[in-house]
Design brief:
The chain is α/β, with parallel strands linked by helices. The chain is about 30% helix and about 15% strand. The mean pLDDT is about 95.
């Protein structure tokens, strides 16, 4: 029996079911509503058939359902007395070796549920135990006596996470899971993704605390049955921009566990250490719980919300009255929801009367927006992530997704391990670079030269799509003339990349049938970041690999949970929601018709311009929402002077951050676990965010706080709920006209553009035409220009900044969770050659000095950076890393040059 294309039909216990090609008999029995025990099986893993608990008869033959492929017309029997007894005996044999508490009420598990269903009681668990525990890790605890050696944890670590940190050791009945490096779990290669915890069927591997025993597989089965079971709230992760769907288990008003959603559109039942475990920040004793107003004595003192909002209203009105609306500015947040960003920009434009609003994309992916718009017409990535992982060649540039976007990194690694060719361009040998077919290591600041060199090879060896270039692109002649001089040998001199490696990489990308480009902040955070994005996009255009079935385009990895959405919602000084220009009368008229008031026509200040205006005395009031600019922005000293110079600074925050400590009024905010709305992830998917718990004390969502301030100023912002705000945004922005909370609640995730409520979203862009005025993709013929900083005798090393796997952004949340135990200090990575020359040992304190400032870090000797280069993160503001970075910025977007700072390093 053959079903629809790609499916087949078979019969399970007399019922005809349809499954996809490649499905197993276990999939077929599940489709038929028959639940079989399968203790070695997890739908996220390859089957092994080792436990023999899922026995069925297929056309009369006894077989394990999990490892038997479904075939059209097969007749499967599951419910005979013989089969039930066989399965019960298989489970009973496994249970007999376990200690009695394995099936006790204190150990909830898949095995315990299976035994209840089969009538196997705790008395049948007769193992002596004594193999001991390993509780060394803050998030992963091992009880060896409960291990049945099913191997699910080992396969999860290898097949899904790609860390290969676990193994099975011992023989026969003594076989047990263990870290592959030997020693304790805390000292292993484990990156705490929680996959082993989530798949373990016996509770041998659990997380500590109230979430012990809760897994994504068991939660749907437990909740309907058990009155004491936790409430479950589906939401979207509030850390990086991947957009993992998470299920938050709540007991007694508190988070018990955060579990990866098996049906998550991006993460597919996986998570990382941050989304999975780092929710402890929500109950930190350092949470702000009431508004704070600076008194005459200079101290921040608690006040009521009424006092706080009235004070903000008076000060903003006074600034506007005395100096005009452009004397007020706001910095919105990539951590806030779309609805909060929408409301904030509406507040600034309609209540204050200025376009002085910006968000932290200015510091990271503003060059992506400018570059992608110039090349293709829209500011988002071109393709859905589900397509990227089907590419036969991945070009990963300036990104370390294994650490910064672990779920993406894990899926890209899986693609490479399954045969996709992998080219990595990054100065450091980290993450995916270890698995690359070709690893290009350009000197920091030479991206444009590298990309032109690759384009040169594509053109010279005729690895381009002539028809695409003729019909759908412009600028081919100009680019060809420019890159003619960027020979592999010349590019080697400019970048340090060997000519042979450049040619090999270009050939892999150029000869692939479906290549894809994925890039990160290593492309954008440069003096010429916009040029970097445009010249990288040239490669996809030359190959005809964007907007076609011959490739998967160009795709930026967004650093924060809603950095895409903050810009989508118009929290930008020159753009309205949906990217209408404030200088465009039609775009303003559309917004004015919805908002009922005039929209300023002059673009506002960007973040660096705000700080400059404050230092010059022109900015009289600044509202910073959810950003610790004193920790994350470059040249920290200048930022601090700007805040100190501004007469009135409001800060909305979770914690008493360095920015909050300089503010005149601090508003306690709700975190992503405590608010309602939507985020947009890196591949343009709108997804719902739902409140799992209440914010502490008198903390409010930014949405509520903005309404309160507007009301104190005598204005009504309308859209009283987040749902109403997104609905109003849909009226302002044609790109989002088809989006609503109701639709997202029903469909789960929808990619913009989505202009029609009755039509689909658009996961893949530009299939018919590009969104440029002429409908063509535009090749960029821009010359390579050197970085803003270069090393010299006084500052001989080049510092690159980025992220580590255990922390997120400024670390304000992860440092207030168990993650601090995983990475307790900021480290400076040095190549062994440099460390030896400088007389610095591993773990020793060091001083790092640039032309702009000084920082104190701990040395980590590693081959990851190239000689002459050092690397550190910015997760610990106290170390002063961003006092080192310069004021150099991309002239198109003002994005800082975080990736190139000349420094010297000395032992303390």
């Amino acid at each position: 029996m053959t079903g629809a294309r790609g499916t087949l039909r078979l019969v399970v216990d007399g019922r005809t079911v349809e499954v996809s090609e490649g499905a197993s008999l276990l999939d077929a029995t599940t489709a038929a509503g028959v639940e079989l025990p399968a203790l070695c099986s997890d739908s996220r893993l390859s089957p092994v058939g080792s436990c023999r608990t899922c026995l069925v008869r297929a056309d009369g033959r006894l077989t394990a359902a999990c490892v038997t492929p479904a075939a059209a017309g097969t007749r499967v029997s599951t419910g005979t007395e013989e089969l039930v007894d066989l399965r019960r005996d298989a489970v009973r044999t496994i249970v007999s070796a376990l200690p009695s508490y394995a099936l006790g009420p204190q150990v909830p598990s898949e095995l315990a549920r299976v035994c209840r269903d089969l009538g196997i009681g705790p008395e049948e668990a007769r193992g002596s135990g004594g193999r001991g525990r390993d509780d060394s890790h803050p998030y992963v605890h091992l009880d060896r006596d409960l291990c049945i050696a099913c191997g699910r944890c080992v396969r999860m670590c290898a097949e899904v996470q790609g860390t290969f940190a676990l193994t099975l050791t011992g023989r026969g009945a003594d076989t047990v899971v263990a870290p592959g490096t030997g020693g304790s779990w805390a000292g292993s290669d484990c990156v705490a993704c929680g996959g082993c915890v989530d798949t373990c069927p016996t509770a041998a591997i659990t997380q500590p605390g109230g979430g012990s025993g809760l897994t994504s597989g068991e939660l749907p089965r437990v909740v309907p049955r058990d009155a004491a079971a936790p409430d479950v709230v589906r939401t979207t992760c509030g850390f990086c921009g991947v957009g993992c769907a998470l299920d938050v288990a709540v007991r007694d008003g508190a988070v018990a566990a955060v579990l990866p959603a098996r049906d998550g559109p991006v993460n597919q039942g996986h998570a990382c250490v941050k989304g999975r475990f780092a929710h402890g920040f929500a109950v930190s004793e350092e949470r702000l719980t009431t508004p704070l107003l600076r008194g005459a004595d200079g101290r921040l003192e608690p006040v009521t919300w009424e006092t706080a909002t009235a004070h903000i209203a008076r000060r903003l009105a006074a600034a506007v009255g005395a100096y005009g609306p452009d004397s007020v500015a706001a910095i919105s947040s990539a951590r806030a929801t779309n609805e909060e960003n929408y409301l904030f920009q509406k507040f600034m434009r309609t209540v204050v009367g200025t376009n002085n609003i910006d968000n932290c994309s200015r510091l990271c992916h503003a060059p992506s927006a400018a570059g992608l718009v110039a090349s293709f017409g829209l500011s988002g990535g071109t393709d859905a992530f589900d397509d990227l992982v089907r590419a036969d060649c991945l070009l990963v540039v300036g990104a370390n997704p294994v650490e910064a976007h672990p779920v993406v990194g894990a899926r890209l690694l899986r693609s490479a391990l399954r045969g996709a060719r992998l080219v990595v361009a990054d100065p450091r040998e980290v993450g995916l670079a270890r698995y690359a077919d070709v690893h290009l290591r350009p000197r920091p600041g030479t991206n444009v030269a590298l990309f032109h060199g690759l384009a040169h090879v594509l053109l010279a060896e005729d690895l381009v799509d002539h028809r695409f270039l003729r019909e759908r692109a412009g600028g081919t002649t100009e680019l060809a003339e420019l890159v003619a001089s960027y020979t592999p040998e010349q590019v080697a001199l400019l970048t340090g990349v060997p000519a042979a490696d450049l040619v090999a990489a270009a050939r892999l990308y150029g000869r692939a049938e479906r290549p894809a480009i994925v890039y990160g902040l290593g492309v954008t955070e440069h003096l010429h970041g916009t040029d970097g994005v445009r010249t990288l996009a040239n490669l996809a255009i030359l190959r005809g690999a964007v907007g076609t079935d011959r490739g998967y385009g160009v795709n930026p990895l967004r650093g924060q949970n809603n950095v895409q959405g903050a810009s989508d919602m118009g929290a930008l000084p020159d753009l309205l929601p949906g990217y209408g220009k404030v200088t465009d009368p039609a775009a303003r008229a559309r917004a004015e018709a919805v908002w009922g008031g005039a929209v300023p026509a002059r673009p506002g200040l960007r973040i660096p311009d705000m700080f400059a205006a404050a230092r010059a005395g022109g900015l009289r009031a600044l509202w910073v929402l959810g950003e610790d600019v004193c920790a994350t922005d470059p040249d920290t000293g200048n930022v601090e002077r700007a805040l100190d110079s501004c007469p009135f600074v409001v800060c909305s925050e979770l914690f008493p951050s360095r920015t909050a400590q300089r503010a005149d009024l601090v508003l306690p905010a709700a975190s992503w676990l405590e608010k309602d709305g939507t985020f947009v992830n890196f591949d343009r998917r709108f997804q719902r965010v739902r409140a799992a718990v209440r914010p502490p004390g008198r903390a409010l969502s930014d949405f509520a706080a903005l309404h309160a301030v507007a009301s104190a100023m005598g204005r009504d912002l309308g859209c009283p709920t987040p749902a109403a705000a997104l609905a109003e945004c849909a009226r302002v922005a044609p790109l989002f006209a088809g989006l609503s909370h109701e639709r997202l609640d029903r469909e789960g995730a929808v990619a913009w553009p989505c202009p029609d409520p009755a039509g689909p979203g658009t996961p893949k862009l530009y299939e018919e035409r590009f969104a440029t005025p002429d409908g063509l993709a535009h090749l960029a013929a821009v010359p390579y220009l050197p970085p803003g900083e270069t090393p010299d005798d006084d500052h001989p090393l080049v510092l690159v900044t980025g992220r580590r796997w255990a922390h997120y952004n400024s670390g304000s949340m992860t440092r207030r969770s168990g993650n601090l135990g995983l990475a307790p200090v900021d480290q400076l990575d040095l190549h062994p050659d440099d460390a030896a020359r400088l007389g610095i040992g591993d773990g020793e304190p060091v001083t790092v000095e640039s032309r702009h400032g000084r920082a104190r870090l701990t040395a980590r000797i590693s081959p990851e950076p190239a000689p002459g280069q050092v690397f550190c993160a910015f997760h610990f503001p106290a170390t002063g890393v961003n006092r080192l970075t310069s004021g150099h910025a991309d002239p198109v977007t003002c994005c800082p040059e975080y990736k190139v700072t000349a420094v010297r390093v000395t032992a303390c």
